[in-house]
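Predict both folds.
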Amino acid sequence: MASALLDVKRVILKIGTSVLLDSEGKVSGIKAEGFSRQIKAVKDTGIDVIVVSSGAIACGMEAMGLSKKPKQIARKQALASVGQGLLMKIYMDAFARVGLKVSQVLLTHEDTKSRSRCLNLLNTIDTLLTMDVVPIINENDTLSFQEIMFGDNDNLSALIAQITNADLLLLLSDVDGLYDKDPNRFPGARLISTVRKIDEGVEKLANGTRSEKSVGGMVSKLEAAKKAGHYGIPTRLIRGDAKDVVLRVLRGEEVGTLFLAKKKRLARKKCWIAFAFKTKGKLWVDEGAERAITSRGGSLLPSGITGVEGDFARGECVEISNNSGKVVGRGIANYSSSDVSQIKGSKSVEIEKKLGYKYTEEVIHRDNMVVL
């Protein structure tokens, strides 16, 4: 596995809020400079580095003299507005000390849903890298609202890895990696060095964050690793404050936990459906439809739908669940929730009779569906 990492040409470096804080809980310029020096060394080897960094809200809290993060979205957005400039000033100063320039890229979830915007984003990032500028990406918390928020920069970093065709995703956190038990409660907890597949057993090992200044936790890190893995990108979770940890990983040292990627990449369109689009509802299917979807590569027909949940329009993304509640896929609906409610359980030839019109025979076509 060490030899594989030597072939990395582009790496996404996700820097969590917790690894930027000093002993007093403040975002530290010294910590940022430590990362800038490592990134300079990595870039000198010919590897592209793209940074996804949290910390805007923490900087805003510090500027406003707050020790506890507010729960209201509007106040979080206000703090992000105050703090984003301060965060970038810290990075600009830190990278200037090693002779590098940085750029700010702020994104909302809507940006990643649009293929044209993603192409523009990729072109801009590629241009910045050719100009020897380090892109620093963050969610645009000031504009994002609850329904379209990424929720954390772990998931954003996985999407950026997909969009920019990265070879490796590094998640820098305040933990050494994934343990078989909570190391804070069980001193004998064992660090898991390699995860071949993120299944239900692995997901049960995750715990949410307790930090007042960060978002996410182990749950979001597993989600990010799963998303990157579907696109063929391995993820390594490492302790961000360990000395020269980024350099050590890229030199082939096995640090933290490595999440292996799937050998067969999902097509880019399938990745958008699986991970970039926010689901607006859910369709429940019977056993026959589940088998058709998961085993025979079939589309979802109205005859196999047993229930409809949520309010969605034609062209929006929905989850597909079996009767036991397990999500088996996602897809772009050809009919609205109200339409599906009328035609569920019916044969395709009955669609026009029940609705008065007919778009397609399939509620979700196979080409617009991904099996999870």
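Second protein follows, with its predicted structure tokens after the sequence.
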Amino acid sequence: MHYPFWYVPGLTSPMWIAIVAVIHVYVAMYAVGGAVLLVFQTRLAYKTRDKEYLDYLRRHTWFFLLLTVVYGSLLGIGIWWTIGLASPLATEELIHIFVLGWAMEYVTFILEILAIFIFFYYWGRLSESDHLKTGWIYAGAAFGSLVIITAITAFQLNAGNWRPENGFWAAMFNPQAIPQIAARTGGSLLLGALYFFLHSSLFLGNHERLRTRVGRQSANWAMIGAALTIIGGFAWLLNLPASGEAALVGAAVLNVLMTIIFLLTAGVVIMMYFGPIRNPKWLTPGFTILFFGAGLAATGTGEFIREAVRKPYIVHNRVLGNQIRPDEIPQLRNTGYLNGGVWTRAYISHKFPQVMTTEGNEPQSDTRIGQIDGEKLLNLPAEDRRLIGQTIFMYHCNDCHAVEGYSSVAQLTRGWNDDMIYNLVLNLDRFHYFMPPWSGTDAEALLLTEYIQEINHPYPAGLQQGLEEAR
């Protein structure tokens, strides 16, 4: 309510966050897990004096640098851009609560950039010990970044009983922090190994000895990662808030996705054991592409589930899905949803000055924006009421629902009459506990009802005919 809305037809703006964030996670997790595998194998190559192994690892570092630093950094900027547009109040909340955390994150990011550039560009020019120290500094900074970012996003899912007076560290060590850090660390090691398998199969196709060695060393770390992922995943389930548990159990698609992620993870572990550990010759391009795709699918599915169970919140107990704070609801129900936002009140004042009043209930003056008189809104012509209903929809509903497309309101209310829609609007959280409560007046509920009634689809004609015949 404190910011203008961003409408993305068919997809909804939060889905852009999901798309950009998941792609970024694929790279960010490789930056952590791949760094550990890279430095560990470089140490092993130095120890065994294996020049061919070192040459390959240097080529892999170039690929690693391009993907994690160049591409990953651009995606990081993309995340800030999308969350600032799609979830501005939640972004504001996380910035204010975690100011120290973001400062720490910027330090780790600078360390990452410096360390990986030195590690690659000074390869062969530093002593072995200094070269490895630089690599471990990079790996440590990447892991530090994972810890900070994961703790902040974990706070969105379960803030526990946190209050502002509890301070920064209490927010960082929220109930979901350690479980998600464990799961993300394990996933990073798994995904890092899959990147190594894919790269080595493509660039070491005729070098069986090296391909076998890279595969086995990567797989050993991947099995550790699998154990951490499983432990972290169960701890994640145990530390879900009541709203998260309800959202997980009540959404059929999430139950299907939970089954899919379990099967994909089990499949990756089995393939890991029977492939690179027991039969390194299986690491052909075809096998590793399939392997890599399964890992990306499992990671993306896990990220989708993690985000989906936050409903009805964007930040647990702090910001609701429609960009308002829970403690604002009573006031908005009393004075009006449109009156509660700077942008909405200015818009209505500009388009419909006749519905505005000053504090003394006098007609709106030219120099001052007063309050919106909700009853006067109902006296406007039908087209104007539709425009106001659309405005309420964009601010109150648009963050989760498209008109047509993803979670389409026009489809979800297909065939509903006015009374059904009106009762739904007034009791959103009662109809679906993962929806935010209605946060406006009865008059505004009527305007939203009229808009939804106009856009929703009719009851399927053939089905209606069949039911009437059955009666």
